[in-house]
Amino acid sequence: MVASAEPKVAAVAPEHSWVSKLDLDGFKKEVSDLGKRLEKNQGKEDVDHIKKICLWSNTFAAIGLATMWLPPNPVTVIALSMWTFMRWTTIAHHTGHGGYNRADETKYFNSRGFAAGSLYKRVTEWFDWMLPEAWNIEHNNLHHYRLSEDADPDLVERNLAFTRDLKVPLFCKYAIVGVLMGTWKWFYYAPNTYKELKIAEMRKLGKPVTAEMRPHDAFTLKAFFDNRVLGAKNTIWYPFRDLMKNVMGPYLLIHFLLMPLPCLLLGPAAFMNAVGNLVLADILTNIHGFVVIATNHAGDDMYRFKSGCIPNSGTFYLRQVISSVNFKTGGDWNDVMHGFLNYQIEHHVWPNLSALSLQRGQPEMKVICQRYGVPYVQESIWKRLKKTVDIMVGTATMLDFPEELERKSDLKVWSNEDTSANSAALGQDVKVKEPVAA
């Protein structure tokens, strides 16, 4: 049982009855043992697999770039969209988690420095709206270790509180979500990941980050507008000019202006066609990313938690499963279209495994969950999109995990040191300049 060493509770709600019957120690051992076996067996085949994904991504890039001078068309737009999508969701994502650190002898697919450290590396290895260093803190560290807690920066139910609570007709809320789908990487992800990097820097320098500053609230471009135009009092974690200079500006300038510049040789119309294709591809890749990413941890069958837990404890493994959802799995083409995020349960349980290892481990992980009675949710991505949108507009609510059923010895209170330690393990800890003594 989860609370085997804790006082017994009087009653358990029917929907949570499975928790009180769970052999958490046995579950932990089997999940841990499987992860270790998968990691031990990683090697050249895993690296060859990610290189194949890179080849596919580069092929889409070649098609898109070679045809972007044409009037906007589906072939060019889809090719450019898939190039960006694959580079983020499969290549940068699993590399940033250290999935190839031991297997890749060239050290190219290595979490220590991939796309980080210079604009050149960012442009040539993973170029997107988000700053890689900021993504490493927000996603690889905070989201993965604090999944579905208040400290999870990607907690959909909390982040969409504005829409959930808005006193407007339901169709207006759906319209808001629709706009967000096509814009969320630059509207939400770029500023929010950068916020988490700035908070990590502040904490490392010993600067106060208080509850009154609301550090867990999503920080979007809307915050700048609200403060300047509406007179709101949101905490502004950095100046807008810093966001443009360090995060969004380089992508806006290079991707949408400099990259299509050679098309001017074919005339102004060709250049404008290229810009139009890039803009449409950006909208499409935003929507594609939203559908496979925002849906990973949201729904009325996904759990939320009120406290932190020790990484790789039984409680940690349990939370990764019951707060994550898989989509249809199997086959590289299917998995690429899902960004390999259709293995979200396995990825959260073992974030340091390669994409190929997730394919290998998924059937066994599912059997373990079935054997121990742990809910293993795997549904069509379209069903999960509906459940996610229901959470966003406020017609559904996530499950609260009963605190009385938590194993108290697995719980913990997060500290500043945890963020640095977890990031340092991947070679991704924030680097700040110490203040000069007066």
What is the residue-mean pLDDT, rounded to a whole number? Answer: 93
Structural class: mainly alpha
Low-pLDDT stretches: 3-7
Number of strands: 4
Secondary-structure element sequence? HHHHHHHHHHHHEEHHHHHEEH
**Biggest sheet details:** 2 strands, parallel
Proportion of strand residues:
under 5%
Main β-sheet, spatial strand arrangement: 1-3
Oligomer: single chain
Radius of gyration: 22 Å
Terminal residue distance: 57 Å
Helix content range: 55-70%
Helix tally equals 18
Q: Give the CA-based shape.
A: globular
Short descriptors:
disordered N terminus, globular, 4 strands, 18 helices, two-stranded antiparallel ribbon, 57% helix
Task: Tell me about this structure.
Helices cover 57% and strands 2% of the residues. It starts with 16 loop residues before the first helix and ends in a 14-residue tail after the last helix. By secondary structure, it is an all-alpha fold. The radius of gyration is 22 Å and the shape is globular. Strands 1-3 form a two-stranded parallel sheet. The protein has a two-stranded antiparallel sheet with strand order 2-4.
